[in-house]
Amino acid sequence: MPETAAVSIRNLSKSFDGTEVLRDVSLEVQPGEVVSILGSSGSGKSTLLRCINWLEQPDRGDIRIAGDRIGVSDTGKPMSRRELAGMRARLGMVFQGFNLWPHLSVLRNVTEAPIHVQGLSKAEADERAMALLEKVGMADKREQYPYTLSGGQKQRVAIARALAMQPKVMLFDEPTSALDPELVGEVLGVIKDLSKEGYTMVLVTHEMEFARAVSDQVVFLDKGIIIEKSHPSEFFENPKTDRVRRFLELEAPAV
Amino acid sequence: MSNWDILWSSYDVFLSGFYNTLKLFGLSAVLAFLMGSAMVFLLEGSRPRLKVPLRIFIDGMRMLPFLILAYLLYYGLPSAGIRMSAWTAGIIALVIYHGAYFAEILRGCRSTFAQGQVEAAIAQGFSQPKMFMRIILPQLILKTRGLLGNQLIILLKDTAFLVIITVRELTAAASSLSSTYFIPMEAFIVVIGFYWLISIGLELFIKMIGRFGAKRGFENA
Asked: ipTM of this predicted complex?
């Protein structure tokens, strides 16, 4: 019997004000797998990612996290806030704009949800947080406040914050798009380390080289439709469609 | 005996007035702030049916002179069969009136709050009340501390109106001494000093919040 997929998306559709942004999208992410979602802006890739943790509600289709459906309870009714919060806590999300909480120190940003959502003691949460801050290279900044950090440092803290809930799947929504070019590397380095440790990750990105290096599967969205889904070597070396070929020429011109 | 000596010999009247004003102010400031925060929480969007009544209440209160509200509660309501002590009426008036102002100050700031921070909290599984208490409200306080401080000073000054409905606070103390001995000038100068004392305490409190905020990058308020 095959393993239960970490994320299973079936026939997902979503419109904003009558404009269809996702059309019948299906995708499976196996445990330990890294999947990159590529596509030009407006292709629906961020919306797809945000549907996975129900920050956007799809119009049709279903999404399962490790076998359990998100957003809709067993009775077919919309999930209660409580049930939904429980499902969301299984997913770690990293945003393009970091979204750290400015009134809390680096350490408290990371311990906030473990203490106040999962009910960990402060000591347990601190221990867990320090290990994660160590992992992302931010342990020495634990007492600082977000406004004193660079973009790259903020994003590394945001990654530690998401990991602190011990999620089954990590979702990255263009994690380096708001960063100065010289800061991109430190964040990608952290994500790459996570991929080596076997984290299951879904990644929306514009970093082609990076997607190629870390992904087990690359998905290409165009106008809300998945038009290619393949292994990165195949995707980058030998794209099946003209659309992808054009995209690759524009995004990653041959040197 | 000079006028000042007369006042000195009645210092206990001032002290009891001062104590009552502090009690009135402290109690209604805390309750009004809690009420304002609760209203902003209820406006968060999960309860659409409450939105319109809350907005009407908030705007209605803000369009009403405080004195009329106090009159209404103390002298008006008995004709509807609701009787309460001057203290109760005074505190209720202060709380609902300034609660509406606190709500409006916090609501204005909430509407400019970065949605990304809210999404980050939702994505981590925060419940609405926890998110409001832990993520949103602390930042609203830090950002609006200047306006909140102003409102607290207005609240303090509004306690003086309650002399009209027979609450024995500072202004009532001065008023009774001034009419007993006919020394209005000196009596009222003394109470101004007491009001200043409380205001300075308030200023220091707001400055403390300011330092707390500045450490976290909340510079302008």
From this structure: 0.92
